[in-house]
From TrEMBL:
This is ROK family protein. Belongs to the ROK (NagC/XylR) family. It comes from Floricoccus tropicus. CDD domains: ASKHA_NBD_ROK-like. Transmembrane segments: none annotated.
Length: 300
């Protein structure tokens, strides 16, 4: 039997049937509903439809998530999930084992389990989506923090000495970037092919500058995480990471930052930067790995 993993995002809800070795058997996606009642109807329908062929349910959600009791304190761009006990609700109609975890932390777990952070003792996954998700592996374990908010880099303050200071995700959100890029080209914000074709072929100076600034922000984040936590490797995930030029340009901007600040080059070895192995499927796999961790803990 397989497991059902669910990744709830601001624009879509992804579902995956995954076996115990982490192989995706089937994956499908639906648009994120506009109300809690609609989301509950969707989730219950999918879970009950698969209940005879699964032996556990895992869920990834943005925001402050207590993975021990399944309580959602905040949920990023999904306001109707704030202050909601997902575990209590799921347990009201199924006895299957269930766990929920923050999406950035799920991505880090997936890559640490069977992805590009495997065998890394200190690393991170950065997920570029509606917000900027981040999961931290420190001393060979996931760092959640006493309030389950370790790695909430979306709330870093940019330009603190200016009157127009912003939170980091106002600039580094992939969704915000795609909207700005689409406005420049006059196309849909979902038209990845046209937008990245224009970037690769340098069809718009304004778009080139926007993209470089976006990647530089992520490169700056990588540098700050490295010098704070002494990380070995960082992987980049989220749907936008499917475009090879994204990680490539982030790496280029990271090395430019090091060159511009010579003390960085003298003091710190360059960190390894790669794409997530599983890209936007990392959240599905990592949520499942958290379920395995909790099942193992219960059996002790």
């Amino acid at each position: 039997m397989d497991y059902l993993s669910i990744d709830i995002g601001g624009s879509s809800v992804k579902f995956g049937l995954i076996n115990g070795s982490g192989n995706l058997v089937e994956i499908w996606k639906r648009e994120t509903p506009e109300s809690l009642e609609e989301l509950q109807a969707m989730l219950q329908s999918e879970i009950e439809e698969k209940s005879d062929i699964i032996k556990g349910i895992a869920m990834s959600i943005p925001g402050k998530i207590n993975s021990r009791n399944g309580y959602i304190h905040t949920a990023g761009a999904i306001p109707y999930l704030y202050d909601f006990s997902m575990k209590e609700w799921v347990s009201s109609f199924t006895e299957l084992p269930f766990v929920t975890i923050n999406d950035g932390k799920a991505a880090a777990l997936a890559e640490w389990w069977i992805g590009n952070l495997k065998d890394i003792e200190n690393g991170a996954a950065i997920v570029l989506g509606s917000d900027v998700g981040c999961g931290l592996i420190v001393n060979n374990q996931l760092l959640q923090g006493p309030n389950y908010q370790a790695g909430e880099v979306s709330y870093l303050i940019r330009n603190p000495n200016r009157h127009d200071s912003q939170l980091f995700d106002n600039q580094a959100s992939a969704v915000v970037f795609m909207k700005r890029a689409s406005d420049i080209l006059g196309v849909s914000k979902y038209d990845y092919q046209t937008i990245f074709y224009a970037i690769v072929n340098h069809e718009s100076k304004e778009l080139d500058e926007l993209f470089t600034a976006y990647c530089r922000d992520i490169a700056s984040l990588i540098n700050n995480l490295q010098v704070t936590l002494d990380l070995e490797k960082i992987v980049i995930g989220g749907g936008i990471s499917n475009q090879k030029i994204v990680t490539q340009t982030i790496k280029e901007e990271y090395y430019k930052l090091r060159q511009e600040h010579g003390l960085l080059e003298k003091t710190f070895q360059p960190i390894a930067i790669e794409e997530c192995k599983f890209h936007n499927s990392s959240n599905l796999l990592g949520a499942l790995y958290q379920l395995f961790i909790e099942i193992d803990a219960r059996s002790l």
